[in-house]
C-alpha cells in the first residue's frame, strides 16, 4: 500500500489563541513570550507582527524596537497545552496513527483512511474545518508520501493552506529549493554543502552518497536520502494503552557489611527513597502503598507496608512513611543484610495524550532556553532573561 502522510502545522499557534480569546487583539500585531520588562525572547508572533520582521527566538527588546505598538503578552502555556490536546483528539477522529511532534505540529498516517473519504484534499479540508469550527483556530496542511515531504508541503502554503506533493513533483520542487531551506540542515551544514557545490535540494540528491558519507559520516547517508526526498521513518502513534504503566516501582540494596546501626540504615533508606521516588515521578505517578523490605543476616525476610489515602510521590513524604515503618521494628540481636523500598497501588496523573503534550512543551522550553543562551553569548549576560 502506498504511504500517505499528512502534516498539520497550526498557524501562529500561541498568538492565534490569544487573538481568539481577546477580541480586541484581532487583526493586531501580537507577540507572545518574554518575562518582566524587556527580558526574554519571542515565543510566537502573530502574522501581523511578522510583517514587522518579528520572529520566534528574537529578543523581546528587539521586537519592541521593530514594532513598539505591538501587544506583548507573556502567554498562558497551560491554556495552549489544553488546545494541543484538543487538536490531537480531533486528528484521532481521522486515524489512530497520530504523532504530535511539537506543541503545534502533528503527523497523521492516513494511508488507511483514504477509502473513507473522496480524496486526500477532502481529508485535509475535513480536518481544517473541524479545527476551525471546534477551536476557532486555523492550520496549514501538507500531504505527501512521507514525513519529510509532508512537512515541506505544509510550509509551501501558509497560513490556512493545503498542499499536496506527489512523487512526481519532487524533482522539480527540489531543484528550486535552496539547501538552507531544507528541514534538518543547519547553518553550518549548509555552508559545508555549498562548498561542495550543493546549492539546492536537487543538487544534494544527485551528489554521490559515498562522498557525503565520507564528509558527514552516518548523517551523510541521511542527507543523501533527504536530497532524494526519501524518508522511511514511520508515524509513531501515541500509545493509548497502559503498557508503559508499571504496577509497582522498587529498589533494593544489599549492604556491603551487615549492620544494626540505625543511623546508618536510615541514611541508606534515604538514598533508596530518592532513587525510587524519582523513578515514580518520572512516570508521572504517585503511590498509595509503601513497602519496606528487610533481609537479616540469618536470611529471614520481613516486609512492612503502609497505605495512605492520598497518594504520595515526594521524597520527604515517602521517607517519613519509610522511617515510621522502620522505627517500629525490633531488631533484637539481628543485623540487616538487605534493604528494599517498593511503591505500589499507583495512580497516574494524566492520560498518554496529555503526558506526551506535557513533554513536548518541556522540549519547547528547553529550546527557548537554548535560544536565550545563544543570545547571552552574543549580547552578554545582563541583556536577556527567560520569562518565568
Ligand atoms: Mg506553527
Keyphrases for this structure?
388 residues, alpha+beta, Alpha-Beta Plaits, DNA polymerase, domain 1, Dna Ligase, domain 1, 3 domains, five-stranded mixed beta sheet, four-stranded antiparallel beta sheet, 14 helices, 22% strand, binds magnesium ion
Short description:
With 388 residues, the chain is an alpha+beta fold. It is built from 14 helices and twelve strands. It starts with a strand and ends in a 9-residue tail after the last helix.
Task: Describe the structure in your own words.
The protein has three domains: 1-165 and 350-388, Reverse transcriptase/Diguanylate cyclase domain (Alpha-Beta Plaits, 2-Layer Sandwich); 171-227, 5' to 3' exonuclease, C-terminal subdomain (DNA polymerase, domain 1); 248-348, DNA polymerase, Y-family, little finger domain (Dna Ligase, domain 1). It has 388 residues and is of the alpha+beta class. Helices cover 42% and strands 22% of the residues. It has helices spanning 13-21, 47-50, 60-66, 77-91, 120-135, 147-156, 170-175, 187-195, 201-206, 209-216, 218-227, 262-282, 315-327, 352-379, and strands at 5-10, 30-33, 42-45, 71-73, 98-102, 105-109, 139-144, 162-164, 248-259, 285-296, 301-312, 336-348. It has a five-stranded mixed sheet. Helix 4 (77-91) packs across helix 14 (352-379), helix 10 packs across helix 11 and helix 12 (262-282) runs antiparallel to helix 13. The radius of gyration is 27 Å and the shape is elongated. The structure holds magnesium ion. Residues 9-10, 13, 104 line the site of magnesium ion.
Amino acid at each position: 500500500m502506498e504511504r500517505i502522510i499528512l502534516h498539520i502545522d497550526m498557524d501562529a499557534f500561541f498568538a492565534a489563541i490569544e487573538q481568539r480569546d481577546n477580541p480586541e487583539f484581532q487583526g493586531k500585531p501580537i507577540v507572545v513570550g518574554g518575562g518582566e520588562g524587556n527580558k526574554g525572547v519571542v515565543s510566537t508572533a502573530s502574522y501581523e507582527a511578522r510583517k514587522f520582521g518579528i520572529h520566534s527566538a528574537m529578543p523581546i527588546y528587539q521586537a519592541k524596537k521593530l514594532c513598539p505598538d505591538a501587544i506583548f503578552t507573556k502567554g498562558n502555556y497551560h491554556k495552549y497545552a489544553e488546545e494541543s490536546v484538543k487538536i490531537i483528539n480531533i486528528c484521532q477522529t481521522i486515524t489512530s496513527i497520530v504523532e504530535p511532534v511539537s506543541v503545534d505540529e502533528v503527523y497523521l498516517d492516513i494511508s488507511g483512511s483514504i477509502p473513507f473519504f473522496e480524496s486526500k484534499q477532502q481529508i485535509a479540508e475535513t480536518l481544517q474545518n473541524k479545527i476551525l469550527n471546534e477551536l476557532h483556530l486555523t492550520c496549514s496542511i501538507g500531504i505527501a508520501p512521507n514525513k519529510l515531504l509532508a512537512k515541506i508541503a505544509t510550509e509551501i502554503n501558509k497560513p490556512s493552506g493545503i498542499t499536496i506533493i506527489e512523487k512526481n513533483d519532487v524533482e522539480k520542487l527540489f531543484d528550486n529549493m535552496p539547501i538552507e531551506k531544507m528541514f534538518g540542515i543547519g547553518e553550518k551544514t549548509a555552508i559545508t554543502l555549498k562548498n561542495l557545490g550543493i546549492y539546492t535540494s536537487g543538487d544534494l540528491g544527485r551528489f554521490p552518497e559515498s562522498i557525503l558519507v565520507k564528509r558527514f559520516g552516518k548523517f551523510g547517508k541521511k542527507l543523501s536520502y533527504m536530497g532524494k526526498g526519501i524518508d522511511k521513518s514511520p508515524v509513531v502513534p501515541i500509545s493509548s494503552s497502559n503498557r508503559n504503566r508499571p504496577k509497582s516501582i522498587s529498589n533494593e540494596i544489599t549492604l556491603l557489611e551487615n549492620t544494626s546501626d540505625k543511623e546508618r540504615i536510615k541514611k541508606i533508606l534515604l538514598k533508596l527513597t530518592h532513587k525510587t521516588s524519582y523513578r515514580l515521578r518520572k512516570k508521572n505517578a504517585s503511590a498509595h502503598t509503601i513497602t519496606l523490605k528487610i533481609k537479616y543476616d540469618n536470611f529471614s525476610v520481613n516486609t512492612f507496608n503502609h497505605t495512605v489515602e492520598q497518594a504520595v510521590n515526594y521524597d520527604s513524604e515517602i521517607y517519613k512513611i519509610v522511617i515510621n515503618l522502620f522505627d517500629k521494628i525490633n531488631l533484637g540481636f539481628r543485623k540487616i543484610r538487605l534493604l528494599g523500598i517498593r511503591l505500589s497501588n499507583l495512580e497516574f496523573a494524566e492520560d498518554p495524550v496529555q503526558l506526551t503534550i506535557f513533554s513536548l512543551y518541556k522540549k519547547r522550553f528547553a529550546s527557548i532556553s537554548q535560544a536565550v543562551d545563544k543570545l547571552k553569548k552574543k549580547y552578554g549576560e545582563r541583556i536577556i532573561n527567560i520569562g518565568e
